[in-house]
Amino acid sequence: MPELPEVEVVKRSLERKIRNKIIKNVKIIDGNLRYKVNKKKAFKLIGKKIIKITRRSKFLIFRTNSKLFMLVHLGMTGKFFFQNKSHKKFKTSFYYQIDKKDHNYDKIIFNFQNKKKLIYNDVRKFGFVKFFIKKNYSNISHIKKLGPEPLEKQFNYTYFKKNISGRNKNIKNILMDQKFVSGLGNIYVNEVLFASGVKPTRAVVKLNDFEIRDIIKNIKKILKKAITFGGSTIKDFSSENGKKGVFQQHFKVYDRKGEKCSNIDCNDTVLRTFISNRSSFFCKNCQK
Asked: At what angle do helices 4-18 and 209-231 cross, to 10 degrees?
């Protein structure tokens, strides 16, 4: 599933491709996504200009020159392709590859000038595309209960300390709670806790001040690094050299069960456990 860095890269890529473009037509091939696509509202995008694309947590917000905007969540397998007038497809992020069978899962096509297209593709159909009026933004159920963005100043030691008080949860579940902090997913939480030397099953109330500060620092550091590794290749998504984001090559613990711990002075191996039905990877020697 694309997490915050991947969605951020999609946002930046889409900004480069379709900002200030006018939607000439909308074709809904299959509107049966997580929520059924409202065709009537979708067709109201016709003639509208995309003036900005923003991100909130793992949501993409397409803002137009009208009161209407589009909210997109990529779910497990949602992705965007950009297609030029020669019908060649290009990626908008690095977490997937282009496959010749992709067209079987195209769900919505947005047509722009010069025969250019933006294609929403979703194999498992867990993503969604919704439409809202600008004045209703703050009341959208998907948005209004989200915690602060992890890269914002509001997500700091004071906020963290205050909002874990009296909570009987482990640190893994706290960081995965979108009401506590928005946008973190399983991959990056595993990486953050390893970098912080904190076992994912540790009760959050048992964290000391140094560990809290270290977790916050590593959240910001690792997310920025992931965006940089993916974002640094944005210009190459439209080329033919197949370059892609490489942060997955820098995983220290995620999906490394049975492998030697990546800390040089540790001879232990990475273990896997399940927390709330999600795989959690850790080193029992380096994480306490």
From this structure: 30
